[in-house]
User: What shape does this take?
Amino acid sequence: MSSPSKSMPAAWRKYLILPKLISLSRSAPKNRTVAWDRYWAGIASTGAQSEVLWDSGTDHELLGYRDILVRHFDPGLPVVDVGCGHGGFSRALAAFSPQVTGVDVSDHAVARAQDESAGINNISFVARDMTRPGASAGLAEGTDANVFIRGVLHVLDAADQAAMMENILRLVGVRGRVFLAETNFNGNPVEYVSHLGASRRRIPAPLELAIRKLPMPGRFGPKELARVMPPDRWTLVEDGPTTIETNPLMDAYGDSRIPGYFAVLRGKVPGP
Ligand SMILES: C[S@@+](CC[C@H](N)C(=O)[O-])C[C@H]1O[C@@H](n2cnc3c(N)ncnc32)[C@H](O)[C@@H]1O
Assistant: This one.
């Protein structure tokens, strides 16, 4: 007799993972700040063979953004990498920016970023919740800054996205620009984890760790951008599809590339 799952249409079979997903994600702390710091505290290593889901271990993705950054970022301004994690992108940015400051809500992420950046002179890191009022203070030493943000907005709820953008608006001032690159997967959470190689039998280790420890991510595309960066506050300069490159460990079972969205914006200076 064939098993009941075999007689199911293939499109439904992936939903058999749902009970496992619910049970794994039950242990994730509800408080997002606590969740992120515990996640980073437990990370033993970063890079291509590590447990960090969104770390491809190369600067290939960043190099794909380089022409856009060169086109829009004033090269004389410092760069603030918001939600920098272990600082992989901050370090890649430091290669062609005068000064980079990475900011992350997690003390453990910042400690790791500092360790991994030892010896690089034009880089520093600060632990700060960028959704808190006034969080932009002191990050750019009194000048306008360019802001780089990758893979952060899609892990925040809409209220926190809006609060973060208020702080970023202050950081960019008149001369700075924001570059953002975010996951914009068109599908529900089961389709998302299936894309990354999760099945009832096996979940790639970096993905399982993220499910167990972190809040379920959403997506961030043009619709979400229009909601949190409205045209009375921001001017959209350029946007389009991109690819978010994740840990290659995902490749064996799923796909280590996630459809994404990038945008460049400038802030609108409030009238008199
Ligand atoms: C998916 S990771 C991306 C890390 C890094 N940008 C990268 O692409 O390698 C999201 C990062 O955002 C940080 N984060 C989450 N909420 C934040 C907040 N409110 N303020 C600052 N950082 C935050 C997390 O600690 C985590 O390091």
Notes: The first strand starts at residue 79 and ends at 82. Strands lie at 79-82, 100-104, 123-127, 146-150, 178-183, 234-245, 257-267.
